[in-house]
Amino acid sequence: MKNPILQARHDPAHCLAPGLFQSFKRGDRKHLKLDVTYDFNEDTSLRFRGYEPLGADDLRLLQGILALAGTTKTTIPLSQPESKSAKQLVLFLEPKDHAVHEHAVALRTTIQRLMAEIGYKTDGGEARKDVIESLDRLSNVTMRVVQNTKAGSIHLLSYFMDESTGDLVVAVNHRLTQAIMGDHSYTHIDMREVRALSTDAARILHQRLSAIVGPGKQRPFNLDTLISYVWPIPATGSTLRMRRSTLRAAIAEIEKTGGWLFTLTKSGAYQVGRRSVGYEPPAPAQPAAQESLL
Predict the structure, then answer these.
(1) Are residues 208 and 228 in contact, defined by beta-carbon separation less than 8 angstroms?
(2) Do the Cβ atoms of 74 and 107 come closer than 8 Å?
(3) How far separated are the first and last CA of the chain, in Å rounded?
(4) d(CA 188, CA 203)
(5) Cα(144)–Cα(274) distance, rounded to whole angstroms?
(6) What CA–CA distance (Å, rounded) separates 195 from 264?
(7) Contact criterion met (CB below 8 Å) for 78 and 90
(8) How far apart are CA 154 and CA 141, in angstroms?
(9) Considering the entire predicted model, what is its pTM?
C-alpha cells in the first residue's frame, strides 16, 4: 500500500533533548531508567522521566504517531473531555497543574497502519509485540514543563486498544499537540526518510538534525558534535573510535535517503544541507470535533 504521508510535525524540545532517545547494547535497557532534563530556552525547561529509557525504536514509533495524528487533528480539551474514549485517554495522560488547561491531539488508527507508516514489512509476530512494548514505554514517560511561572506535568502519550473494533486510540501531550497544530515552532520529520533508515544511530541523528537544519538550509558540524547527538555521554579510546565509525556509516545511510548532503570540508567538519522539495507547508490546522473519531 502506497503511503501518501510525507512529513510529521514534531516538537523541537522533544527532538533536541539530549539522551531522550538512545542507542543501547543488548540487555542495557533493563538496567537503566529515564531521567532527562532539558532547558529548551531561558523561559522553558522540560524533564522526562520513565521506568525504562527510550530507544531509536520508540523514536520511530512516536514519529509515526505524529505523522498519522497530523492527518486528523482531532483535539481533546484536557479539562473537559466529552466522549468516553476521550475521557479514557485523558485519564491515562494524567495532566496535572497547568497542563490540565491544555489540549491533546487524539488519533484512532490501527496497529497495522501505524507499523506500515514507519516501514515495518510485517504487522504480526515479534514485530507487533515490539510495537506494543514501545507504546507501553512511551505512555509511561512523564514530562514536566516549567515555563516562566507556569508548571505542569503530563504523560508523553496515552493509548488503549478498542476491544469492540480492534482500533488503536492514542493521544499525545500538549506540546506535541501544539506542534501538530502549528501553534508554536515545529520540526519537519520526513516519513519517507524515516522509513528508509535502519540503524539506531541514523534514526537518532536524523531527528536531531531535522530539528536544527531547516528545509532548504545548511549548517556546519564537526564530527564530535554529531557524535554527541547520538551518544551524549563522552567516550575515549576504542569506544570513541567505534562511535566515529558508526557515525560515518549513519551519515552515509541518511545521505542515501536523498534528502540530505554531508560535505566534508578541509577542516574536517561537515557542511550538512537539507533538501527543500517535499516540505511545502500544509494548510493551517483546523481542530476537529473530538467525537468525529473518538
Answers:
(1) no
(2) yes
(3) 25
(4) 14
(5) 32
(6) 26
(7) yes
(8) 9
(9) 0.92
The pLDDT tens digits for 29-69 are 888 899 999 999 999 999 999 999 999 999 999 999 999 99
**Other residues' Cβ atoms within 10 Å of the Cβ of residue 214:** 14
Residue 266 backbone dihedrals phi, psi, to 5 degrees = -60, -30
- Spatial distance between the Cα atoms of 186 and 13, rounded to a whole number of angstroms: 9
Residues 6+ apart with CB under 8 A from 69: 105, 106, 107, 170, 172, 180
Closest to 170 in 3D by CA, of 88, 269, 79, 100: 88
Report d(CA 192, CA 58) in Å as an integer.
17
13 is written with which cell numbers?
524540545
Cell (9 digits) for 103: 489540549
Cell output for 188: 519537519
Backbone angles phi, psi at 236, to 5 degrees: -135, 175
Contacts (Cβ under 8 Å, ≥6 apart) of 25: none
- DSSP secondary structure of the chain: ------EEEE-HHHHHSTTSEE---TTGGGG--EEEEEE-SSSEEEEEEESS-EEHHHHHHHHHHHHHHTTT-EEEETT---SHHHHHHHHHH--EEGGGGSEEEEEEE-HHHHHHHTT-S--SHHHHHHHHHHHHHHHT-EEEEEETTEEEEEESEEEEE-TTT--EEEEE-HHHHHHHHTSS--EEEEHHHHHH--SHHHHHHHHHHHHHS-TT-EEEE-HHHHHHHH--S---HHHHHHHHHHHHHHHHHHHHTTSEEEEE-TTS-EEEEE--TT-PPPPPP-PBPGGGT-
Residue count (the chain): 294
Name the residue type at position 191: M
Counting beta carbons within 10 angstroms of the beta carbon of residue 44, is it exposed (0 to 12), middle (13 to 18) or buried (19 or more)?
A: middle
- Taking only the tens place, the pLDDT of each residue in 228-282 is 999 999 999 999 999 999 999 999 999 999 999 999 998 889 999 999 866 554 4
